[in-house]
Amino acid sequence: MSGIYPGVALLVSVWYTREEQQLRFAFIQTAQVFILATGGIVNYGLNHLDHAGGLRGWQWMFLVQGLITIVFAIATYWWIVDFPENSQSSFRFLSEEETARAVARIQRDRGDVDATPFKLSVVLKELKDPKIYGFAVLFFLQNIVSTALSYFTPIILQGGMGFGSDQAILLSQPPYYYAAIPALISSFIGDKYRIRGPIITANCLCLCVGFAMLGFPSQVAVRYIGVFFATGAYISNWAALNSYQANNITGQWHRAVTAATVTAFNGLGGVAGSFIVRQNEAPHYLTAIWISLGSQILSIAIVGVFSIYFYYANKQQKRGLRKIERTEGFRYTL
Questions:
Q1: 182, 189 Cβ separation under 8 angstroms
Q2: Element (H, E) at 25
Q3: What does the alpha-carbon distance between residue 61 and residue 313 come to, in Å, rounded to a whole number?
Q4: What is the pTM of this model?
Q5: Which among 44, 170, 181, 243 is least buried, having the fewest CB atoms inside 10 angstroms?
């Protein structure tokens, strides 16, 4: 499981030009949350098959969803595409002429189609880039709020807002369907104007508003709307963060190392996020609220530091004083 998302993110980043990536990441994220939301509703139904056919409800969940996963896994062996330079070898995908056209557009954008042979020294050299750790911390902070919301929203709805267990399960799903709207709109704007940092900052501010609405008021309706705001913002930021890191690095091994590093930190954020929602703090869960607010403020600060650095690096590149990312003509995406 840990290799799926970074693998998909790596494929998107090598196939599309930098101004095309955020919307593609948003499509992936939207599909993921639609499946997550629909899966929650399906699990609600499967749980009501308890003792049907001699199986418990949780066994029906594992059986049905496991079977679907196996079928898709087998199909993916032929369905998944190779890197652009090898795409003519993929099953019924591109011709050699189309492959050459795909390679040419990537080469014009950032000049990193050809990968150098694998060497441990190359990988270790890429790990010296401090940007990788800045991106990794952003993913860590992002997954703190992602985990807190995605796994504990039913608990918050039940223990914090007074809904029954069945109501809490069903009411947890609509915010994910809503999240497709801000994710796609913000990503379209980000690609159209080729901006990343301002989109991430706007999403962080929306997350702060959502968590404030979730944690501080006493009205249930206001708090539930806060769940929508927060969910829409963090789903949108997955696409924005992925395109932010992918737009500002070059080289296939650099991308692979960055993808692995941010995935590791992302996982650590999930571990941290699983501890911040404490049931004895119901109904407002202030530890989770304050940690989530703080994480987004810190994210804005990190993006601000990146933006200043990228801005001055681009000015130097424009004056011919430096080469960015060892690539002629390359400039950072702010």
A1: no
A2: helix 21-47
A3: 52
A4: 0.92
A5: 181
